[in-house]
Design brief:
This protein is an all-beta fold. The chain has helices at residues 5-8, 113-116; strands spanning 46-54, 57-62, 68-72, 76-80, 87-91, 104-109, 118-126, 132-143, 149-159, 171-176, 182-186, 204-208, 230-233, 237-243, 249-254, 260-264, 301-303, 309-314, 327-331, 336-343, 346-354, 359-364, 370-374, 379-386. The strands form 5 sheets. The protein has an 8-stranded mixed β-sheet, with no helix packed on it. A 4-stranded antiparallel β-sheet has the order 1-24-23-22, with no helix packed on it. Strands 10-11-12-13 form a 4-stranded antiparallel β-sheet, with no helix packed on it. The longest helix has 4 residues, at 5-8. The radius of gyration is 19 Å and the shape is globular.
Length: 388
Amino acid sequence: MTRTPLLLALGLLPILATTACSAAGPDAGGQKAAAAPAASAGQRPFTATEVSRFDQPWAMTFLPDGSLLVTEKRGKLQHLDLASGQKHEITGVPKVAYGGQGGFGDVILHPQFASNHVIYLSYAEEGTLDTRGAAVARATLELDANGAGQLKDLKVIWRQSPKVSGEGHYGHRLAFGPDGKLWISSSERQKFDPAQDMGGNLGKIVRLNDDGSVPADNPFASQGGVAAQVWSLGHRNVLGIAFDANGKLWAQEMGPAGGDELNLIQRGANYGYPIVSNGDHYDGRPIPDHDTRPEFAAPKVTWNPVISPAGLMFYSGSLFPQWKGSAFIGGLSSTSLVRVAFDGDSAREAERFNMGERIREVEQGPDGALWLLEDGSKARLLKLTPKT
């Protein structure tokens, strides 16, 4: 298949084994690939300091007081007081379907969290007849003076439809946009064709009101049903969504064997999976590239060999002024932190930092530091600050 050399020059060896993205194993990139050229520890412009450790962490978000919520895949929500280092498990969380890539997912705050204390959680949920699907719930977070707490009035406001067999490709990344709407990535659950089927919400980016209802101005609202939730379609496994400073939504997704993507998400657009991809099937069968079907929205950056992207955020802080406006992506198989630079709607990989471990999540802290969560058991929470 054809390639675009400028976009594909950097990367790691492609993940060719089907187990790399199997429902029984970790996310795509379960195998460590050979290292690509990347800044070593001595060349990094930052110092990485271990702050805490977690068991299979998946996502984190900062509270207004500077403390941290962290989800762990097995089904725990942890509250970490960064000042004291004390960690407390939050009770009242939903039951998760743990296994493969499934379990606890994302955690974010309502835009008015300071006054309403509402948070949003995503997780894998059991269905009937050995099926599963992602779900999103909202709840009120109550913390006591010691940092322990509970979730109250938990309510499921969205579910993947249909629930299917397998334990892979849930997606379930969450973000609130400048419009106050809730955005959800719903991956295709390793079932391919549902990404093009408007009868379900698999392989889609979903846009909802904060209570889970459907905005009347969604592009497919007139179709009713599940289709009314959909903002864009034709996605594979979207493990990061974030808004840039101009209010544009970007999403990164894992490609098949090759073809990881960074996409600018447009209203009603079809991103082509599984009809087109800049990667191929794991069994070696080719998939036509995006340039063969111009009616499908093409990625702004493609990685082949892959980075196995996880987590996405845009930097707006002052600790690293040279990075303001850049995006950062955690790399799983690439064991890296990837910086993406932008020129309008164009994007390119600008830097790659070898972190030596699979990076599951990246966030910006209140003081402008970068925070990383490693993947797996005994995973470190790292704080990145400028070298002095």
